[in-house]
Structures are given as C-alpha cells and as structure tokens.
Amino acid sequence: MKLSASFAALLALIPFAAAQQAAYGQCGGQGWTGATTCVAGYVCTYSNAYYSQCLPSSTTSTSSHPGTTATSSSSHASSSSATGSSSAPASTSTAKLNTVAKLAGKKYFGTATDNSELTDTAYVAILDDNTEFGQLTPANSMKWDAIEPTQGTFTFTNGDTIANLAKANGQLLRGHNCVWYNQLPSWVTATTWTAAQLSSIVSTHCGTLVGHYKGQVYSWDVINEPFNDDGTWRTDIFYNTLGTSYVSIALQAARAADPNAKLYINDYNLESSSAKATAMVNLVKSLQAAGVPIDGVGIQGHLIVGEVPSTFQSTLSEFTALGIEVAITELDIRMTLPSTPALLAQQKTDYQTVIAACKAVSGCVGVTVWDYTDKYSWVPSTFSGQGAACPWDANLVRKPAYDGIALGWTT
Ligand code: G3I
User: Where this protein primarily resides, as one coarse class (predicted)?
Assistant: First the structure.
C-alpha cells in the first residue's frame, strides 16, 4: 500500500517533468498551449503578450523579488519576475479610477484594449468595471489596415466589438484613428496616386469610418502622428502627395460624417515645450484661421520612469489656451527591467504627476492608459529590456502606480 502510494506520487510527477520547457524555449504567450514551466536553472520570463521564454534564472531573478523561484515557474509567476509583482509593494488605494477622475471634474479615466484580449475573462472583468474605466480606445481594430484592407471594402467587425462593449458597459469611446502613416494596407502605399485620387481616398476612408460610428464616439484621433520630433512634417504618402492639405481633408470628412464627435490630432513627444509641441500649436492655429474643424490635441504620453517633463502641465495649458481641449490619450510609463521597489515607487510618483497635471488644466478632459495591464502592453516588444509600464501588472494585480493615479485625481 505504502509502495503503491509512492508509485502514484511518482507517476503524478511525470507529466510535470515532461511539461518542462527546455532552455530558451517558449513557455507562454497568447495562444501558447505548450509547457509553461522551465527546466532547472531557468525561469519562464515574460517578454510580451505573445511570448514568454525560459531564460537562465541568474539573469531573471533578483534580490528584489525573493519570491521568484528559479525552477517550475509558470508563465504567470514569471510575469512577476519581469514586473516585480510577487514581492513588490502593493497598491492599497480604495479609490476607483474613473470615479475619482469624474469627481475631479473630468469626463473619464479610460484604457486601450484590443480584440485578442477579450477572450481573457479575468482581464475583461476588470475592463468592464466602469468605476475603473469610463472610456475605451481600440488599440488596433479601427486602424486603416483593419477597417479598409482593400479599397472600398470596409470591415467593421472588430471595431464594432469594442464599440458595443463600451456601450454595454456605459463607457465612452475614443476612435483611433483615420489617417496614420503606420498600419496602412499595401493598396494605399503601393500605388503612386495623384493628389485628386488620394484626396478622395482619404475623404472616403475617414467619412465612411467616422460615419459608421456616428453617435457612438466621444472623440476621434482623425490625424495620428503627423510630425517628426524636430517639428517638421512626417514625409509619409499623405504629406508627400497632398502636402499639409491631407489634414483638413480628413478633418472635414470626419466633421461631415459625425458633427457631434470631437476631432483630435494625436501625437507623442508633445509632453514638454519642444519644437514638436510648437509645430502642433501652429498647426492648430492655422486650421482655426482657415475655418477647419479641430476640437482637441491628443497628448499620447508614452513616458519613461523618472523622466516626466517638468513642463508637462504648462504644455497642456499652451494647447487649451487655443480654445481646444486636450486629453492624455495613450499613457504608459516604462522602466528598464527588472522592476524594483524603487522603480515602482518612482513610477507611482510619475503617474501621480501626469494625472495631477491633467486635473489642474480645466481643458484636459481625461486620461487613457495604453492598456491597463503589463500583460498586454506594447512596450516590451518595442523597447527591448523595458516594460512594466502599466498600472496593473501582468498578473492583473494593481501596482503602486494605481495609487499614484488615484492620488493624482484626489489630492
Ligand atoms: O494581429 C497580428 C497577429 O495575427 C499576429 O499573430 C501577431 C504576431 O506579432 O501580430 C498581430 O498584429 C500586431 C498588432 O499590434 C495586433 O496585436 C502587430 O504585429 C503589432 O505591430 C501591432 O502593434 C500595435 C502598434 O500600435 C503598431 O504600430 C500595438 O498593438 C498598438 O498598441 C500600437 O499602438 C500605437 C498607437 O496606435 C499610436 N501611438 C503609439 C502606440 C504604441 O505603439
């Protein structure tokens, strides 16, 4: 009897042993159905939403995360090693982020989301909570390649899913985006268009997209990222063919399609006084002078821990002084991994600083985080070795950054 119990115990170990991934093998990520634990000496380490990898434990576990074991880590536990949730300081705030944003006089605190994330029930349970998030932005499903993959054929299915989710949850929707140099289908970029042809293409695309969601969208990023960091125009197919006129073509088509949606131009590196911010101010002025509709500037807010610009609030005010609104549209504050309690504490301060700046500027209508969790952040796959940029960690556990946001709205 004793012998057979030991044998059973031994048998029970066999699938576990067989399930361990080899050194440097994949051990997690969206759609991954293979092993999620690693052979001895390796830790399953979160890289991005699509990929976790077995890396040597000596390079992945740190003294700041004593709870992380070198072996048998699940991909979730490994996320902790990348984001520091296992032994890092916890969030203690009892505030709900959208509730306190509205108490501060704002329209919303919101988050980006993406269709592929909506099968994650634990993620969706938090996303659906409109006391936390009063607004959603589709991270990808309203972009040109998703909406008009071939000329004249519009596919709204994924965009509709997020629009309907926001509606069901009582959340505002930001539309993202009509015209951007990135994520364009090849039919747009692979042809040499005349100005008249491209003007019609832009007008049709924006008019059809905005018109489809008429009455459902609080604000649209009609134009995304038109400038280089030095304030010169980005020389994409739109600028090269139409000059600056593509901006007014798109804005006018959007206004005609949904007269009640707020029309924004959205860009990054607008968080401080800079040539790029000045270029945006001048663009807004010239559009206003020409009678072209423009209601807001989106300040994306892809920031770095410890580097929130000291002129953030005054830069927001420079835009609202033009008689338009501003919103922080894509906030995340990344760090070099692994995270440490000190980095997480600084990140909390940084989130608080950003939110306090929006709170202090009456024309700043709201803040959107570019997904609320490190589990689905775009950062690690774009900036090698960086991440942990969101207020919830990869295990959907609130970080000190959450408390920073709450403090920003409430103090
Ligand atoms: O859909 C495919 C999937 O089929 C495939 O298996 C997978 C493998 O990599 O790729 C998937 O497409 C990815 C797509 O996101 C959807 O998840 C693309 O590779 C990936 O490049 C794309 O990244 C998006 C990025 O924009 C593209 O530039 C990010 O999710 C999105 O968060 C990011 O958002 C931008 C804003 O629109 C503008 N401001 C900057 C911000 C961050 O880059």
Answer: secreted
**Of 33, 40, 77, nearest to 57 (Cα)?**
40
Cβ neighbours, 10 Å, residue 11: 9
118 shares its domain with 41: no
Tell me 373's DSSP state: B
Which range marks the domain in which residue 36 is found? 25-56
148 classed as catalytic: no
Q: Does residue 198 sit in the same domain as residue 282?
A: yes
Q: Give the angle 146-327-274 at the CA atoms, nearest 5°.
A: 100
Q: What is the pLDDT of residues 274-333, one digit of tens each?
A: 999 999 999 999 999 999 999 999 999 999 999 999 999 999 999 999 999 999 999 999
Inter-axis angle of helices 341-360 and 312-320, to 10 degrees? 30
Query: Do 253 and 159 sit in the same domain of this protein?
Result: yes
Q: Which residues line ligand 1 (CB under 6 A)?
A: 50, 114, 116, 139-140, 182-183, 224, 300, 330, 378
Dist. CA 351–CA 398, nearest whole Å: 13
pTM value?
A: 0.82
